[in-house]
Amino acid sequence: MEEIFVPALGMAMDNAVLLEWLKQPGDQVNVGDIVAVIETDKTTLDLPAETSGVLGKHMYAVNDEVPAGNTLCVVLAPGEAEA
Amino acid sequence: MTIPDKKTSLGLLRQMMVIRDFEETADKLSLRGKVSGGMHNSSGQEAVAVGVLSALAPLDVIATTHRSHHHTLAKGFTSREIMAELFTRSTGISGGRGASMHLGDVTKGHFGGNGIVGAGVGIAMGAALGIQQKGDKKVSVGFIGDGGMNTGRTWEAVNMAVIWKLPLIVVVDNNQYAVETFVGRVTGGGDLAKRAEGFGMKAFNIDGMDVLEVRKYVSEARERALAGEGPSFINALTYRYYGHNVGEKGQYRTQEEIDTWKSTKDPIDHFTAVVIENGYADQAAIDEMRASVRAEIEDAVAFADASPEPDISTIYDDIDSGKLGVQL
Ligand SMILES: Cc1ncc(C[n+]2csc(CCOP(=O)(O)OP(=O)(O)O)c2C)c(N)n1
Ligand SMILES: [Mg+2]
Prior knowledge:
heterodimer, A: 83 residues, CATH 2.40.50.100, 0% helix, B: 328 residues, alpha/beta, Rossmann fold, two-stranded antiparallel sheet, binds magnesium ion
């Protein structure tokens, strides 16, 4: 199971705002597909999947503030279920 | 290149594996926000650190840079105390006050990392002057990046070390980039050893991906320094596998360039092959070593995670001689 999370970048570990979900729970995703777009104080960032599988549930909604390090969703490999 | 005995060789290999695993683990934890202030990953540069430190005596001095986990591990500090420092915990090498860029312990000859490009050589030069004044049988190594080669203070320090014949060894941990800037684009004359020679010291451009080559050049430099012959300069060509700091994915180099260095020059793969060819280990022994390294790093993370943050009552400790009586 791959966790897609808000990366802590740079010196300060600020919150990010979730701008957009590009994949929905249950969607098939492939390596490199952009799953979500977030905005930090410096930049907007596309968050790609690094594995292929099925997207789990959205843990945040669009416009939510998400602390750096927190998981947004998981990508489930065949046979895996969400915790 | 003559290979050291079995125990020494396996020790060099294991130390490089510890650094790689430590860095890749810490990188992931940093992205998760576990490492205050981020960090600079040294993956790819293991042979420079291990080659240099294995040629030194335990109390020889080093001063280093913002990218210093590999030097600090190779100097013999534990993965536990370094991971705990990255997590800014009281059990860290600097008591949790320094984080990634300020690892150090002067009582053990580690004069610290720092965030000022080019400062390491000046600090090491000062330590070398102290060693000479006290008549100690020690040397001082100043690590510096290729970026630090084009700052003025570096060469002021080098010049003083030459005229005073100080026991200083300058080691360029030359990963070829200063953030996004390729060394070849900003280095007048191109040849760093020639530049250093111009100051009147022995200087070498060497293969920083070959742990035995680094070890050999540093051993010889150390002998010269102890014999009173003054400083040496070693430019060790290496490569940084990750971004300048955690999470940085710049457009300044190609994936192909990164992949080529990894697949043809990797210091751990290279030395693993040397060790196997010499009959010091078979593949099973290598796998076992890797597993023991994995366990060590997992233990370091668990230790760091379980350690307390520094107590607030200690906030004024270590900022003066203790005689000023500064209190919270
Ligand atoms: C005096 C100074 N100038 C600029 C910086 C910003 N800075 C931090 S790291 C870095 C690049 C250093 O490159 P290099 O010396 O090659 O070391 P590397 O990061 O490759 O290990 C720069 C410019 C700084 N910290 N200090
Ligand atoms: Mg560099």
